[in-house]
Amino acid sequence: MSDSKQHEALQVRLQHEFADPRLLALALTHRSFGSPHNERLEFLGDSVLNLAVSGMLYRALHDQPEGDLSRVRASLVKQDTLHKLATGLGLVGLVRLGEGEMRSGGQHRPSILADALEAVIGAVYLDAGYDTASSLVLRLFDKVDLSPSMTAAAKDPKTELQEWLQARRWQLPVYRVVGTTGAAHQQTFDVECEVTELKQSQRGIGSSRRSGEQAAALAMLQWLKEHPQ
């Protein structure tokens, strides 16, 4: 299928027909393909996404404090969530990539797809304004059950472990990278999480240092559940 046909089909899924189709083409152009590319649209779309999700949560979780709303928002706009939404929207195979990025599997890379989704949101904003872009965001998240119970589930492992330790007036955990594997653009990080008072450490693997730390914190939380203090 030609790019124009694919873009037409995507606009049907977006429920938005672009007045300026060049914006959609730009949103689907990764910087490895050349310039101009979608990074400026991604920057814009990130802000639109956060504002739209903030408004959605403010209305849906009206009894929740700011901290809980922030945690839920972070969970909804993180890369993993956006990658799933981008895949569901059919962005896989639509992003224009350079030959090297294409050969290395870039069309399926979560970061590229998540960024492309933000760029598409930014493109819709420029093409038709905030209300239209916000409506797109709401449709993307329309199957998410926004309930007060989400605030607990939205706590990432590092936050949950930190709060558990602070409640006992213990030191914060220490994270250290104990090993890395893979090429520079696609490394895997082996991270250790140590709790001093317990003289205990657990390890986790992730595609970034941050995700490795989260995996290590989760392993520590699971250890704590198996060894009640």
Give the count of structural domains: 2
In DSSP terms, counting alpha (H) and pi (I) runs of 4 or more, how many helices?
11
What is the makeup of the main sheet? 3 strands, antiparallel
Helix percent reads 55-70%
Neighbour order of strands in the largest sheet: 1-2-3
SS-derived structural category: mainly alpha
CATH class annotation of the largest domain: Mainly Alpha
What oligomeric state do the depicted chains represent?
A: single chain
CATH topology of the largest domain: Ribonuclease iii, N-terminal Endonuclease Domain, Chain A
Structure, explained:
The protein is mostly helical and 229 residues long. The protein folds into 2 domains: 3-151, Ribonuclease iii, N-terminal Endonuclease Domain, Chain A; 157-226, Double Stranded RNA Binding Domain (2-Layer Sandwich). The chain has 11 helices and 3 strands. It has helices at residues 3-14, 21-27, 39-60, 66-77, 79-89, 99-103, 110-128, 130-140, 150-153, 157-167, 209-226, and strands spanning 174-181, 188-195, 200-206. It has a 3-stranded antiparallel β-sheet with strand order 1-2-3. A hairpin with a 6-residue loop joins strand 1 (174-181) and strand 2 (188-195). Helix 2 (21-27) runs antiparallel to helix 7 (110-128), helix 3 (39-60) packs across helix 4 (66-77) and helix 3 packs across helix 7. The longest helix is centred in the first third of the chain and has 22 residues, at 39-60. It is flat. The N and C termini lie far apart (60 Å). The mean pLDDT is 90.
